[in-house]
């Protein structure tokens, strides 16, 4: 049963309205504005309030203002019931937020009809709000599921490249974290602010682990070679950026609509070996022509290659690696990104320590790769 709160400082009016409404509703009463505010916030919360205007201490207009200011009562519809019958009084009440206006002396049939109409209207509004809330929760759940699927897909693709790559999985974690640090620092920079929206930052961080996905297409004798590559081998190694671009582009074609993180991943995979002065590969792009995402990945990838431990090389000390990055300002790297790196060096060092590779990790990874290749050779000979 719906609950109605009647507010009037005249006992006779309270009694009259109570007797009229009690056969149809649960009725609560208050003889002052202050008492009405107390009753309105205690269970059962009223579904509708019939509010007198002319009351001592706190009139109906003041009560309505308090009701609307309180989140617990702001949505309760209020009907003014008053002897003020001028059009201007009615207009004032409706303008302040009352849903209706009933003049005294009351006419029972009119009161019942108005009350019923507003109770039904509130019920319909509440139902719609509940349905909207349920729909929003379902949409949020589906969005979360989609994001999770994206994350799992990215990790699976990155792991595919990682299986054949002598680098450990910590390289992916570190470079992803470096990208996040750089983007957060540069998001207010005038040259980067338009691009580094929250959506683009998330897409960039999410897609960063795919930067070397193209290495799955590099022959084992080149990819796993512990020593220096010959010029011919190096040319083949450089094709991993194009192979990565092509693989992600094919994934884009297979989707029904554009996927932002795939576009970002394609730029990163294709262009993260470009250099600010145009001496990089595969396209020799110069300066601003290099996508921002690739410029950020370039610094993160080179820095990590310097500080990472490999079975065939010891890691550079952090300060030496940082010096090399700073020396690359204006030639290898976008100067603003180097400045961001210098400002956030403490965070870079913390990430490198938190996700550091041990010598045992590197040896285990090489053993896994060697075992995989041995297995493939056995399959071919069988």
TrEMBL record:
Pfam families from the UniProt entry: HD_5, Response_reg
Protein name as it appears in the record: Response regulator receiver modulated metal dependent phosphohydrolase
Key words of the record: Coiled coil, Phosphoprotein
Lineage: Bacteria, Pseudomonadati, Pseudomonadota, Gammaproteobacteria, Candidatus Competibacteraceae
Ranges for domain Response regulatory: 3-119
Record-linked PROSITE patterns: HD_GYP, RESPONSE_REGULATORY
4-aspartylphosphate sites (modified residues): 52
PANTHER family for the chain: CYCLIC DI-GMP PHOSPHODIESTERASE TM_0186-RELATED, CYCLIC DI-GMP PHOSPHODIESTERASE VC_1348-RELATED
Residue ranges occupied by any HD-GYP domain in the UniProt entry: 146-357
Gene Ontology process terms (BP): phosphorelay signal transduction system
Parts forming coiled coils: 118-145
GO molecular function: phosphoric diester hydrolase activity
InterPro entries linked: CheY-like_superfamily (IPR011006), Cyclic_di-GMP/3'3'-cGAMP_PDE (IPR052020), HD/PDEase_dom (IPR003607), HD_GYP_dom (IPR037522), Sig_transdc_resp-reg_receiver (IPR001789)
